[in-house]
Write a structure and sequence with these properties.
This protein is α+β, with helices and mostly antiparallel strands. It is built from 21 helices and 19 strands. The strands form 4 sheets. The chain has a 7-stranded antiparallel beta sheet. Strands 7-4-3-11-10-2-19 form a 7-stranded antiparallel beta sheet, with helices on one face. The termini are close together. 6-diazenyl-5-OXO-L-norleucine binds next to strand 10 and strand 11.
Length: 574
């Protein structure tokens, strides 16, 4: 662990804290200093590691494993700390997915995605002329689904070894006594200042009179009290009692529809993880209501019989092939994918070898296939998120992606409870053909219905080698770019033989069928762009794609861990 993280604690910290109120990890003479820390972008560890969006969260996750916990304990503690120190995406007011493979070989897929409230209805975001009002699905009280994160954390902790009270205490301390914010976080908070004011009904810790700057201390007293209620009352500390009442009061003040019954009725779903073979390796992914696992399955299978490694990394040939596969898979996403409890997702067909072969039958290696000529396949049956990759000393692997949807979610802070609500309702198809904030379109499969989970792109992924030993833990935020980023990360390692750092940091590209364009990150080859343009592709350069966290397990069992250079992301371990 970096010297900066284990260094001594500020005097201020010592003055503020009473020893008994602190976790054994954070505080005076303890291990982690919330005022002095830096990101560690890549490191190889012997036993256990966490890679995630914030150095404090990685460090606390790793520390839980060091103190006798396992990867599930780390998963809970890390997410709770992210909810405090990375409030643009870390959350208790949102939801997520966890894919794990236990050391005994059992796979786990936990779905703690938000649900549409009971009062939600298919056309709730249409005005009287039938026009979609996406401002309502993206901002403010009506944009929120019923949060799933806390239920997900309790379901995760059931596989852990440490008491929940131990896992939550670091987050409580960080909220109560504060931590130093980074330059990126200061800029992010400043950029949403007006939006937070507009969409909240009371002042919050996230808005201060002057602009935030790097080095400021963010203290979240209301959040600390909410976390204490969860510590003391378990899941009911969020879904019932005072916290639930505060959420419902907030909803009433701002025209939201989440009720006490919605909160009380929220259920985590244990799903069957998707598993398929790629050249002898086993890839394990999240099933619907995420589209991510299915898209990665289709994309990898569209590559398997083709000489991608010979084409070379980001050559015109390899990029064109990958883009054409992406175009076809995303057309299927729009038509066939939704919450499997409400819509029959034809998983078997979409992933069958015959179907996938047929999808690529009109692929032309010399030119772009216009998206308007690509429809979903014919079958007979229908910024801001955050990722955590973990492996422990026992061989448990966990991949978690969790989100509020947009950066700082709906921008509604629950008055008195101090946390931000999600704007996940925008991930539904609010009207057939109307794009969500990531440009994704959909129809019946992903229409709004009470209790339904909105379709996601989140793609927590694990890979086992030919002997079924842990090989890769990967995932990223990035809206609809998530599956294509995970796809590129896997291809970078499995086909182009990259180390974890290169697999994460090399420029990325993305195509999602509609809009019909290839998006590229800065640094993507200008030559390849020229050649793609000549073949009929439309290209647009865009900002950073994703924040990928990768653990690659080396032949000698060491864990090579990389946190994305695109954010404050950091690795930790031992
Ligand atoms: O579930 C989804 O697909 C989206 N709500 C994810 C949003 C996201 O990744 C934003 N991050 N940049």
């Amino acid at each position: 662990m970096k010297r900066t993280i284990v260094s001594s604690i500020l005097l201020l910290w010592q003055l503020n804290c009473t020893a008994q109120s602190l976790s054994p990890i954070i505080g005076a003479n303890k291990i982690i200093d919330p005022y002095h820390y830096t990101s560690v972008k890549s490191q190889t560890f012997d036993k256990a590691s966490v890679a995630c969006a914030h150095p404090l969260a990685s460090a606390i996750g790793a520390e839980m494993m060091k103190q006798g916990g396992n990867a599930f304990d780390a998963a809970v503690a890390t997410q709770l700390v992210l909810a405090v120190v990375y409030s643009n995406a870390g959350n208790i007011g949102g939801g997520g997915f966890l894919v794990a493979r236990k050391s005994d070989g059992k796979s786990i897929a936990l779905d703690y995605r938000e649900t549409a409230p009971a009062k939600a209805s298919r056309d709730m975001y249409l005005d009287k002329n039938g026009n979609a009002q996406t401002l309502l699905s993206q901002f403010g009280h009506q944009a929120s689904g019923v949060p799933g994160t806390i239920a997900g954390l309790f379901a995760t902790a059931a596989y852990g070894k440490l008491p929940f009270k131990t896992l939550i205490q670091p987050a409580i301390d960080l909220a109560e006594y504060g931590y130093t914010i980074t330059e990126r976080e200061a800029a992010a908070l400043n950029s949403v200042r007006e939006s937070l004011i507009k969409n909240s009904t009371a002042p919050s810790a996230f808005v201060k009179e002057n602009k935030w700057k790097a080095g400021d201390t963010l203290i979240q007293k209301d959040m600390a009290e909410t976390l204490k209620r969860i510590r003391d009352n378990g899941q009911k500390g969020f879904y019932e009692g005072k916290t639930a009442q505060l959420i419902v009061d907030e909803m009433k003040k701002g025209g939201g529809i989440i009720s006490l019954e919605d909160l009380k009725n929220y259920q985590v779903k244990s799903r069957t993880a998707l598993e398929f073979k790629y050249k002898g390796n086993t890839i394990i992914g999240m099933p619907p209501p995420s589209s991510g696992g299915l898209i990665v399955w289709q994309l990898m299978k569209m590559m398997e019989q083709r000489p991608l490694a010979n084409y070379g990394f980001q050559t015109t040939k390899s990029v064109q092939l990958m883009v054409e596969a992406e175009r076809r898979s995303y057309a299927d996403r729009a038509e066939f994918m939704g919450d499997p409890d409400f819509w029959k997702v034809p998983v078997k067909t979409l992933t069958s070898d015959a179907y996938i072969k047929n999808r690529m039958s009109d692929y032309d290696s010399n030119k772009a296939t216009p998206s308007k000529e690509i429809k979903a396949g014919v079958i007979k049956e229908s910024e801001e998120t955050t990722h955590i990759s973990i492996i422990d000393q026992y061989g448990n692997m966990i991949s978690i992606t969790t989100t509020l949807n947009n950066s700082y979610g709906s921008r509604t802070v629950v008055a008195g409870a101090g946390f931000i609500m999600n704007d996940e309702m925008d991930d539904f198809s609010v009207k057939p053909g109307v794009a969500n904030m990531y440009g994704a379109i959909g129809g019946e499969a992903n229409a709004i219905a009470p209790g339904k989970r909105m379709l996601s792109s989140m793609t927590p992924t694990l890979v086992l080698d030919k002997k079924k030993k842990p090989l890769i833990v990967a995932g990223t935020p990035g809206g609809t770019t998530i599956p294509t980023s995970v796809f590129q990360t896997l291809v970078n390692i499995l086909e182009f033989d990259m180390n974890a750092t290169d697999a994460v940091n090399k420029p990325k590209f993305h195509h999602q069928w509609m809009p019909d364009e290839v998006m590229t990150e800065k640094g993507f080859s200008e030559d390849v762009k020229k050649q793609l343009l000549a073949m009929g592709y439309k290209i647009s350069e865009r900002g950073a794609i994703g924040r990928t966290e990768v653990i690659k397990i080396l032949a000698d069992g060491k864990r090579e861990v990389a946190a994305d250079k695109r954010g404050d992301d950091s690795v930790s371990g031992f």
